[in-house]
Amino acid sequence: MTQDELKTLVGQAALKYVTPDTVVGVGTGSTVDKFIDALAASGIRIAGAVSSSVRSTERMKALGIAVLEASEVEALQVYIDGADEIDHHGHMVKGGGAALTREKIVADLAKTFVCIADESKLVDALGRFPLPVEVIPMAAAQITRRFAAMGGTARLREGCVTDNSCQILDVTGLRITDPAAFEADVNQWPGVVTVGVFARNKASVCLLGTAQGVKTLT
Ligand code: 5RP
C-alpha cells in the first residue's frame, strides 16, 4: 500500500471514535484531510467541529461540516490529528504543517487524543523529524542560540507565516529523551509561542496504518 492509501485507511478508522451529535476536535495535515473526507462521506451527524487551522476549516466548510470557535465549547470528547513522529508512549512531534499552536489548544480541550498516522511516523525516540517551534519573530535569533547551546541547529522556515502571524523554526540535531521535561523547558523560553513536542497533550491512542492494516497503539 502507498503512504497515501495508509493515510486513507487511518482516516476512515478514526470514524469509530466519533460520537454522533457531539462536537469533534479536528487537526491539520494530509492525514486529517482523509479523516475530514471520510467524516463528510460517512453520514454521521455531528454537532460541529473545532478546527486547528484555516486549512482544515476551509476543507470542512466546503464539505458542509459546521465549524465552531474553540471559545464556544468547554470540552471535547475527542480530538483527531496526525503527527510527524510518535513514540511508543504517545509522545509526538507535530507542526510540519505549521499548525502546532492551534493544534495544542484544541487538543487541550479534548478528553481523548486520537493520533492517525502511517507507520513511517513511529519512532523509538523523538528527534528524527526537524522539530517545529513557533516563535515571535523578534525572538528568533535568541531562540536559535539557545538551541545551538543544546546541540541543535534551528533554521527559519522560509516563507512561512503561521495562522497566528508568527514564524516557525525547524530544529535538527536534537534527541529528545525526556519529552515532558523538554516541552516544559522550551515552552518557557521568552518568545516561544509553542514547541512542537506534544507530551503533556500526548496521544491517548494511535491508529497506525501498516501494510497489515490498522494497528491500535495505546
Ligand atoms: C500539522 C501537523 C500534522 O499533523 C503533521 O505535520 C502530519 O501531517 P501529515 O498528516 O500531512 O503527514 O502537525 O501542523
From TrEMBL:
EC numbers for this chain: 5.3.1.6
CDD domains: RPI_A
InterPro entries membership: NagB/RpiA_transferase-like, Ribose5P_isomerase_typA_subgr, Ribose5P_isomerase_type_A
Reaction equations catalysed: aldehydo-D-ribose 5-phosphate = D-ribulose 5-phosphate
Annotated active site: 103 (proton acceptor)
Similarity-based family: Belongs to the ribose 5-phosphate isomerase family.
NCBIfam families, alphabetized: PRK00702.1, rpiA
Protein name, entry field: Ribose-5-phosphate isomerase A
Organism: Roseateles amylovorans
